[in-house]
Amino acid sequence: MAFFSAKFLGYSRVSFLAFVSYKLLTEPGTVLEYSGVMVLASAMNLPLLMVNDNSPIYGSLAVLLFTLAFTDFLPLVDDNTQYLELAAPARLLFFFVLAIYTCMGSNIYICNSLVFVYCFFEIWTGILIYSTTREEKMKRLQEIEKAEEELQEQYQRGELNDEQTAKVEKELEKAEIDKLMQEFQ
Hints:
Oligomer: single chain
Structural class: mainly alpha
Order of helices and strands: HHHHHHH
């Protein structure tokens, strides 16, 4: 059983990205010279990015991170679980490949401490969200299956009204037709 829900993890990711984008706008040194960033980059032998207070790149990076946070915020508010189920594995794959390239490549614009730490963060949150969404999906499917079994039992005992009986019979006919079609293929 998961300790956190996928929705909570999604909101945590959105909050963290919004916080980092705010820090990049106000104090970029706190992000670039954070001890965790330096330790992780040093462990991977990546070049450290130094703070240049006059660089406009921090604003562009902050807008990009805030846009990523905002695009994740809207499906979370709408309770769109399919978005998390589809986005998490795609992001995980992309950032895993990017992290490998960051460690193995030689392009200073991509192979640096900030890109690698961001990839590391995305991989970590991606694994958490992916595993949680799969667990929640399995739980939902089990609940649906249990409800269908209860409905079948009520149908067999004759405890359903006419409308419910017609609905169950229609579903049984459809399932039988699907089964026959699969046998002919």
